[in-house]
Recover the amino acids of this structure.
């Protein structure tokens, strides 16, 4: 499938956070989670696909016993903005009842996805439920929800890299970059 004409090479996108900055921040979050859950086990629930890389790095930065599972939801499709409708595509594979759960997301934007997931996961009666996000865009919030662990707060810009995509492209970019606005008509 050819690349649409509005795709910009990642090398032409400005770096927002370098690979080193990300690694340092993920390590710090891992240390914070390890301190919060000392002598306990946790389940990390990654939100596919964007959070997969963040979850892998975070899991390795946590010193307490942890396992992980994944859920998949859809609210973007191939667009740069959320449709507002969230639907569950893949549910958990293992029970979380009575367990300490941390939902791991790539970006907390409007809050619609995480609000939906929080409500859904609380029905499974975990011992506790917290949220870790790599990026937080508070000015885009449509519903009142906050993450317990935040990598970086960013302004309202579309970003790619470190698992985050635009129409499934750029997930493999090692840093987080600002994607330019697409001209009207494209």
């Amino acid at each position: 499938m050819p690349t649409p004409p509005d795709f910009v090479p990642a090398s032409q996108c400005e770096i927002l956070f370098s690979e080193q900055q990300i690694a340092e921040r993920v390590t710090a979050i891992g240390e914070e989670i390890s301190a919060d859950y000392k002598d306990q086990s946790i389940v990390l629930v990654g939100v596919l696909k964007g959070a997969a890389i963040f979850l892998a790095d975070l899991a390795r930065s946590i010193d307490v016993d942890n396992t992980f599972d994944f859920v998949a939801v859809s609210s973007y499709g191939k667009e740069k903005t959320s449709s507002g409708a969230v639907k569950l595509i893949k549910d958990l594979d293992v029970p979380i009842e009575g367990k300490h759960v941390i939902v791991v997301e790539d970006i907390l934007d409007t809050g619609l996805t995480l609000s939906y997931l929080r409500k859904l996961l609380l029905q499974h009666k975990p011992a506790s439920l917290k949220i870790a996000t790599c990026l937080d865009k508070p000015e885009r919030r449509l519903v009142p929800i906050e993450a317990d662990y935040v990598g970086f707060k960013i302004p309202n810009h579309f970003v790619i890299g470190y698992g985050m995509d635009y129409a499934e492209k750029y997930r493999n970019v090692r840093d987080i970059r600002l994607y330019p606005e697409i001209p009207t008509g494209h």
Summary: The chain has a mean pLDDT of 90.
